[in-house]
Amino acid sequence: MYPEDLKYTEQHEWARLSSEPDGGRVRVGITSFAQEALGDIVFVTLPTEGEKVEAGQSVGEVESTKSVSELYAPVAGTVVATNPALEGQPELINSDPYGAGWILDIDVESTGQMDGLLDAAAYERHVSDS
Predict the structure, then answer these.
(1) What residues are paired with 16 via a beta bridge?
(2) Among 22, 29, 92, 97, which residue carries the largest CB count within 10 Å?
(3) Which residues sit opposite 106 in a β-bridge?
(4) pLDDT by residue (tens digit) across 7-41?
């Protein structure tokens, strides 16, 4: 149900480690479970590129017709990119949460941080227990 190549947080973010040779970049978005719970997403507040973030730190907000939800960094590092398409099309998070609806990229000093996140099976258990 959830992509196996991703890691997940209990706050419903996903993280994908870059396949680039240096491998120090993590792409972040929210899960299909989160976007379904939120409903129609109408606005996204993104962090500033160059901003240093800590794992678990709030880095933005996702606003829907139902509520506003915090977005948390799954890893520590530096924000190096945000998804420019979300400015005009925040609904991409609803239609393609694991692709075109990505939210930000973080350069990490240690990719070992990913080991502390949930795999797909553990995340699926987490949401079914909620």
Answers:
(1) 27
(2) 29
(3) 26, 79
(4) 999 999 999 998 765 668 999 999 999 999 999 99
Which residue, chain included where needed, has tokens 């880095």?
59
Annotate the chain with DSSP letters as a single string.
Answer: ---TT-EE-TTSEEEEE--SSS--EEEEEE-HHHHHHH-SEEEEE-PPTT-EE-TT-EEEEEEESS-EEEEE-SS-EEEEEE-THHHH-TTHHHH-TTTTT--EEEE-S-GGGGGGSB-HHHHHHHHHH-
pTM of the shown model = 0.94
Could you tell me which residues come within 8 angstroms of residue 17 by beta carbon, excluding any fewer than 6 positions away?
7, 23, 25, 26, 111, 114
Q: Considering just the CA atoms, what is the radius of gyration of the chain in Å? A: 14
Cα–Cα distance measured from residue 45 to residue 84, given in angstroms and rounded to the nearest whole number: 11
Domains of the chain: 7-124 (2.40.50.100)
Question: Which tokens in the block code for residue 26?
Answer: 């993590």
**Is the separation of the CB atoms in 80 and 107 below 8 Å?**
yes
